Amino acid sequence: MLAAVVGAYVALRGLSTWNRQLKGGVEYDLTRRILKCTFRLREAIKGVRNPVIWGNEMPSPRENDAQRLTKEQLRHYGTANAYQKRWDKVTDVRSDLQTELLEAEVIWGRIIHEKFDPLFKLQNELFSSVHAYVAACNPDESEQARAAYQEIMQKRRDILYDLSSEVQDEFSQDISRAIETIELFLQPHLRK
Length: 192
Prior knowledge:
Structural class: mainly alpha
Largest sheet: none
Shape: elongated
Mean pLDDT: 87
Order of helices and strands: HHHHHH
Radius of gyration: 24 Å
Number of helices: 6
Low-confidence stretches: none
């Protein structure tokens, strides 16, 4: 009888250890995926802020449409589409990240969203700046609307371009701090 009790105890301890290891493996994998998506988001945001727009980013309208557009309209068409392509990368990564965060919420609760809120607010700030810039450059907008968008841009901090070389600009520093907070929260889950 003693052997049966000892055997049952050992079996329960083994199951408990196996369960902890399995949970730790799941958390490790999820943490790694979340960090990977977070770093991809950082790089996509950097891509949006790149001050150089390459020719392959600026599509031309169809030939029939291009003939009807002025030089200023053609330039705006290319610029607007370049920013849209850049922003599409941010949107794709954000979508992947949202999926991972839903799984993380199941495991860790709502706190994971609180850790990402500062990063997402910075992303929204950049989106708003890009939108205002593209609208302010649109020759098809009225002078009043273009002036209003210019005024909006002047009231906000200048974050459209990342011109920093060795020292990060303020917006890049804010992004780095937001990601550092996320990393600090997730680090313990990488050690399991």
